[in-house]
Structure formats: structure tokens, C-alpha cells
Amino acid sequence: MTEPALASPSQILADLWSAAGGESAALARVTLTGNDPVLPSSFRVGTAAQATIAAAALAATELSRQRTGRAQAVAVDMRHAAIEFRSERHLRIDGKLEGTGWDKIAGVYRTGDGRTVRLHTNFPHHRDGILKLLDCAYDRDAVQAALMQWQAEAFETAAAEAKLVATMMRSPAEWAAHPQGQAVARLPLFEISRIGEAPARALPKGGDRPLSGIRVLDLTRVIAGPVCGRTLAAHGADVMRITAPHLPAFALLDIDTGRGKLSANVDLRATDDRDWLKTLVREAHVFVQGYRPGGLAARGFSPEALAELRPGIVAVTLSAYGHAGPWASRRGFDSLVQNTNGLNHAEAEAAGVTGPKELPAQALDHASGYLMAFGAMMALARKAREGGSWHVRVSLAQTGHWLAGLGRVPQGFACPDPKHADVADLLAAMDTPFGRLTHVRHAAQLSQTPAHWARPPVPLGTHAPVWPV
After folding, report:
1. Per residue in 448-464, is it b (16+ CB within 10 Å) or e — as a string?
2. How far apart are the first and last CA of the chain?
């Protein structure tokens, strides 16, 4: 029996564009080059990278067309897009790769029932919580010995109940039968919904870039949400990263995703700081957040509260497992979702190794980040035409379900794994407070307003929490 033909990258982009309400005529302005595999994987990681980056870029050109009446072309090469999905691997400061911040007990372990679990202990409170749950020393051998006293699913559940992050590796069939897997399968890849009333308003005047004058509050960490903000900044938005000194951070990731952004400290535990954030919201156009489900709502910053505070705002929400199903409130990270939704199991089978085998990029993170930026820009365009306040929802699990549905790459592991020296043609450099930064250029090429980052990354909390004039 002949396998059904896989959808082309152009068709996948067209599906994304249609789902967001884009006009089909715009697709004629996009050129996509290259084919999978461009990274060693049985999944179409390159296609996912190309389609999501192209969708965000095309949305940027539509905003530009709304402002100027001029259309422009978009080109995305698959190899370049896939390397941008691994941007954190190619960041160099004064020619050196800085430490990743990966914790020494993070990773994969066997359990007493012969299953596998993955721990994410890169934030100190998650690490300390896991050690308390296991009642063991801060040592890989001690953690492994403690986990041999557990069944994998029972440990996964206990960790979630303790507000920690760990998952059991599942096969695709196991995830499809799981209540959360079924809930995710019923959800669309992303949602753009109207949540409030506001008059239609044209985009801010002035500036020569698609998002000139657009103010974005970026309350996200790690990769997915920060990639959204970095993408909006690449098209000219004023993006302000909001964090606080007590929150854990990854220096390497913050530098990589901090390109183009302001960075201010606001401690939402304090009433005065919450009032300060409300002042920022009243002058913002987009509010992006990726904290645990319900975390910011409890501080008064739910999408609905934002729409009341700033009618016409676009609220963008990232979660790990989606807003439906028994795991809707669970915390999670890309590596944990890959582990539990069958991707790592399927990769291991395709590679002929004992699992789990990770994807060759944090593909769920990066794809989700570009989808968030895409949704934000499409919502901005609709707000300008129709009015209203808007809510964009994306989750790592929904992105993983979509990636799995794109089909597989025969002999994908025959593709060599690109090294840093192999991608020199895709790199650029800028001076920063950290030193001379080498980074991956944005993969989307716009014919009239080339994407670039006008601001270098800065140490967290560098700027005052006020919008630039």
C-alpha cells in the first residue's frame, strides 16, 4: 500500500494562514526553499521551523501593508529556519560558548517498574522539590536509587501534585489513549479569540517597520515565550521583558532571546509593583505571558482583566498542556512534553536505540514561540480592522500534536548533525554589554523591511519600567 503524500511546506503554511483568518492572496508573496531532512530526525522539524517562521513573517508584512498600502515578499530557507530553531546552541560571546545552566540531576532515569521518567530540575525550587519528594541527596546516583522505589506514573503524579515538573515517557499510542492526549487532540493548534469590546484603531503612525510603535510586555522565561518577544522585536516592536530579581533565570537563554528587548524588574508580589505593571499595560498593545496556568490571573492580570484595563489589548498565553483536560493546570517544559507525548519514544524507535531520544532541537519551544508571534500579529491586524480585545492561546502539547501530524522523514537520521562551523553563513554579530555576540540571523527575509534587532540584549533589569518616548 502506498503511503499518502505528505503535505508540502507551502500547504502547511497555507493551513496556518487560513486558520488565523489570513487572506489567501498573501501566500503568493512567499517563497519557501529546501526540504527535510535538514536536521537528524524522523520528524519534519525543518518543515515545522520553516512554516512557523514564514507564518510570523507573512503576518508582519500584512501589518506593514495595512500601514503603507505596499505589499512585500517573504522568503524562508528551511536549513536556515532549522538552525534558528537551535539558536541557543550557536550563541557565542567573544567567540566562546557560555554555560547552559543545565542542572546536574536533570535528565532521564529508570523507575522500579522498568519505565523511564525525565526530571527538569533547572530551576532551584524544582530541584529542591524533587530532592524533598525523593528524600535523597543531590547526586545522580542517589536520585536513581530513590526512583527505583517508585512506579513511573505514580512518581509523575506525585511530582505534579507537589507543583514540580517530571514526566513518564509514553509511546504515541499511550499518549493518544491518555485523557490529556485526547484533550489536546481535540484542540486546534492555536486559538485567536475576541474577549472584549474596543473601537477599531489604526496601528500607531510613524516608523518604517511593520511593528514600529507597537509596545509589547514580555512576561515569559526560558525559550518559547521569549522567542515570541524576540520575533516581534525583529519586526520593530518595543518589547519590554518583565522579570524580578527573585525569579530564576538562564543567562545563556536570556541573552539569546533578549535581542531587541528592553528589560525591567517588576516584583508582582508587591502591590506598588503590580500598580506599576498596570500603568505599563495601559500603554501597551500586546501582553505575552508564559507563567504557570493561573499564576498571573491570581495577581490580577488574566486576559479578561487586561482587556478591561486596556481595551483593545492582545493577550498572548502560553501553557504546557493546553487549557482543556486533566493536565491543564500542570507546569511543563519542552523536554518534558516531548517525553510524555510519544515524540521521544518514536524517535528512539526510528533511530533503533533504546529511548528516549530527544528531537534535535527544542522544536516545541521554538515553534510555539513563532506561533505566538504569528497569532499576536494576526490579532493586531484584526483589532485594527474590527476593533475588540483579543486572546491568543498556544501550548507546547498542541504544538507537539501538530508536529507529529506533519508526517515522518524516511532515513531522517542519515542527515548529519550540523556543527557550529557548518552554519557560519547564517550567523551575524553585534556588540553587547556581555561582549561581542555572535548569533543566528533571522531566517525570514523580507524584501522591504529586513528583520533585525535594533537593541542588543542587556542584563535583566537594566531599564526602568517605563516606555521609551
Report:
1. ebebbbebbbbebbebe
2. 64
Burial code (b: 16+ CB inside 10 Å, e: under 16) for 349-363 equals bbeeeebbbbbbbbb
- Distance set, CA 334 to CA 7, 112, 325, 369 (Å): 25, 25, 18, 12
Look at residue 193 in the predicted model and tell me its pLDDT: 97
Contact 229, 242 (CB under 8 A): no
Residue showing cell 508571534: 373
Supply the pLDDT for residue 100: 64
CA separation for the pair 344, 39 (Å, rounded): 15
Question: Cα angle vertex 450, ends 423, 242, to 5°?
Answer: 85
Q: Can you name the residues that pair with 168 across neighbouring β-strands?
A: 117
Q: Angle of helix 363-386 relative to helix 224-234, nearest 10 degrees?
A: 50
What's residue 248's pLDDT? 82
> Which residues does the chain have with pLDDT short of 70?
1-4, 99-101
DSSP helix/strand/coil, 78: helix
Q: How far is CA 11 from CA 4, 16, 256, in A?
A: 15, 9, 31
Please list the helix, strand and coil fractions of the chain in percent, rounded to the nearest 5, in that order.
40, 15, 40
Question: How many alpha carbons lie under 13 Å from residue 268 in its C-beta half-sphere?
Answer: 14
Q: Is the peptide bond before 37 cis (omega within 30 degrees of 0)?
A: yes
Q: Which pLDDT belongs to residue 1?
A: 45
pLDDT for 371 equals: 98
Report how far residue 33's alpha carbon sits from residue 373's, in angstroms, rounded to the nearest whole number: 22
